[in-house]
Amino acid sequence: MKIVYADNNATTRVAPEVVDAMLPYFTEYYGNPSSMHTFGGQVAKALDTARQQVSGLIGSDPAEIVFTSCGTESDNAAIWGILRSNPRKRHIVTTRVEHPAVYNLGKYLAQSGYHVTELGVDSYGMLDLNELTDAVREDTAIVSIMHANNETGVIFPIEEIGHIVKSKGSILHTDAVQAVGKIPMNLSKSTIDLLTLSGHKLHAPKGVGALFVRKGITFTPFIVGGHQEKNRRGGHRERPFDYWSWQGM
Ligand SMILES: Cc1ncc(COP(=O)(O)O)c(C=O)c1O
């Protein structure tokens, strides 16, 4: 029996050219990209190329891309990263139709003493932007609203949402896991501050994700450890780490 796979929003087959591109890094070029020696350095170069390719897909600067392990991690990193950088702001706005990676984090934050506003949707799965305008407050650290819905396929007007969020002085994160690669994006001309994407929805392997963090956004690493990803994933700092001032930008 021939199987026809029609669930590409759940996950995709890794493209043969992706497998070909990756294989040498398991067998030949397996150095640590953080190492001082050239064996690791050639892997660091490949990482730079991958960063340029991802940023090309969404129209950002390569330095604005933080590699993660998946979309779920990127969502958590975005929301925690902003909350930890703005400890006095304890309100977040999200929607009732987010993927569990955001929705359940919202529930967890509400149980942990944060104020969480969940926007509802109408019978077409659409948001009421007036409700959004009313919901964003002075103490709103972050608004997290997905771009395309994984269940209904509804696409939210993310730039319009961004204009509202900006006019109220807050920060917009969007879970664009179901949008990247399907909807053209140019984040260099966008109101989005942070954006989540996931490799396995785009013919890359599972275990690869990325978070776009706009230049100038103060962001505290979610995963604390080494200095990888320019201290934005891993890295140990007691205070919000401003990558851009550190870079003298
Ligand atoms: C909208 C959305 N956000 C986040 C995720 C989680 O991505 P990952 O499986 O890479 O953790 C998914 C996966 O189905 C999704 O559809």
Return the average pLDDT rounded to an integer: 92
Proportion of residues in helical segments: 25-40%
Q: Tell me the number of structural domains.
A: 1
Largest sheet: 7 strands, mixed
Gyration radius, rounded: 19 Å
- Strand order across the largest sheet: 1-7-6-5-4-2-3
Explain what this protein looks like in three dimensions.
This protein has 249 residues and is α/β, with parallel strands linked by helices. It has a single domain, classed as 3-Layer(aba) Sandwich (Aspartate Aminotransferase, domain 2). It has nine helices and seven strands. The chain has a seven-stranded mixed sheet, with helices on both faces. Strand 2, helix 5 and strand 3 form a beta-alpha-beta unit. The structure holds pyridoxal-5'-phosphate. The site of pyridoxal-5'-phosphate has 13 residues, from helix 4.
Secondary-structure map with pairings?
Layout: H1 16-22, H2 24-27, H3 38-58, E1 65-68, H4 71-85, E2 91-95, H5 100-111, E3 115-119, H6 129-135, E4 140-144, H7 158-167, E5 172-175, E6 194-198, E7 209-213, H8 228-231, H9 243-246
Helix pairs in contact: 4-5
The structure holds pyridoxal-5'-phosphate.
